[in-house]
Amino acid sequence: MSDPCKILVFASGNGSNFQALIDAVSSGAIPNSKIIRLIVNKSKAYATTRAENAGIPWEYFNLISHGFRQKGETDPAKIQESRDKYDAALADKVLKGDYKPDLVILAGWMYVFGKAFLDPLEAEGIKIINLHPALPGKYDGTNAIGRAFEDFKAGKLENNKTGIMVHYVIAQVDRGAPILVKEIECREGEELEQLEQRIHSHEHELIVEAAAKVAGEILDKKNKTQ
Predict the structure, then answer these.
(1) What's the chain look like in SS3?
(2) In this structure, are residues 192 and 149 in contact, taking their beta carbons and an 8 Å threshold?
(3) Contacts by 108-113 with C-beta closer than 8 Å and gap 24+?
(4) Other CB atoms within 10 Å distance of the CB of residue 36
(5) Which of 64, 148, 163, 179 would you label with 205, given CA atoms 20 to 30 Å apart?
(6) Catalytic residue among 66, 132, 167, 202
(7) What span, in angstroms and rounded, lies between the C-alpha atoms of 55 and 119?
(8) Which superkingdom is the protein from (predicted)?
(9) Mean pLDDT of 83-102
(10) Which of 166, 53, 55, 154 is CA-nearest to residue 107?
(11) pTM, full prediction
(12) Mean pLDDT across 114-135
């Protein structure tokens, strides 16, 4: 069997999507792959417990706690400079040492990467994918489900549908090419919390399917060049 697809996961919170990836690698639903490391930016992220239970190394690396930005900083130039330095340091962590991945998956990662992170990984041919709870080109950024729900109530949601996508990550937030998309219809009389639950119930399946698809393409390419 060829070398596995080495996966690095970034997460910020509970890590339920991370757990879905762990389980899928273990079961073979993501074939011939290995999660080599988890990186979190929140010190109390439960994803770290999931990593420990699965024997996966993890690391905490934070913009403020690790000295890139002063807490409470408001100067836009200093904020941007701190982000650039943090992104470059993270890229360095990803690319150096024994943990260089073939694929990076953002699984509930609550931070937007800039070019100082994205460009070095692109130069090395490392794919980055992310799950976003909206359809392509719709509701970029935060509170995507809430904004779709408000438009539905106002009669402005196209075809009364929102959804989920897994996409490649580029500098433009949530605008990278979609890998897999699932439409979800909004229902009359439904509260926001119910819509959120229905959307979240499909996230694990979609991120696993997308990871398997991209990992398979990476392994095919590897095998052809060997």
Answers:
(1) CCCCEEEEEEECCCCHHHHHHHHHHHHCCCCCEEEEEEEECCCCCCHHHHHHHHCCCEEECCCCCCCCCCCCCCCHHHHHHHHHHHHHHHHHHHHCHHHCCCEEEECCCCCCCCHHHHHHHHHCCCEEEEEECCCCCCCCCCCHHHHHHHHHHCCCCHHHEEEEEEEECCCCCCCCCEEEEEEEECCCCCCHHHHHHHHHHHHHHHHHHHHHHHHHHHHHHHHHHC
(2) yes
(3) 108/11, 108/12, 108/13, 108/14, 108/15, 108/16, 108/17, 108/18, 108/47, 109/10, 109/11, 109/12, 109/41, 110/12, 110/13, 110/41, 110/42, 111/12, 111/41, 111/63, 112/173, 113/87, 113/169
(4) 18
(5) 148
(6) 132
(7) 30
(8) Eukaryota
(9) 90
(10) 166
(11) 0.92
(12) 94
- Residue type for position 68: F
Structure token digits, residue 53:
């239970």
The three-point CA angle 94-96-35 to 5° equals 45
Checking if the pLDDT of 123 tops 90, the result is: yes
* Band of residue 67 on the pLDDT scale cut at 50, 70, 90: confident
The Cα–Cα gap between 38 and 59 comes to 6
Given a cut of 90, whether residue 185 has pLDDT beyond it is: yes
Q: Read off the amino acid at residue 20.
A: A
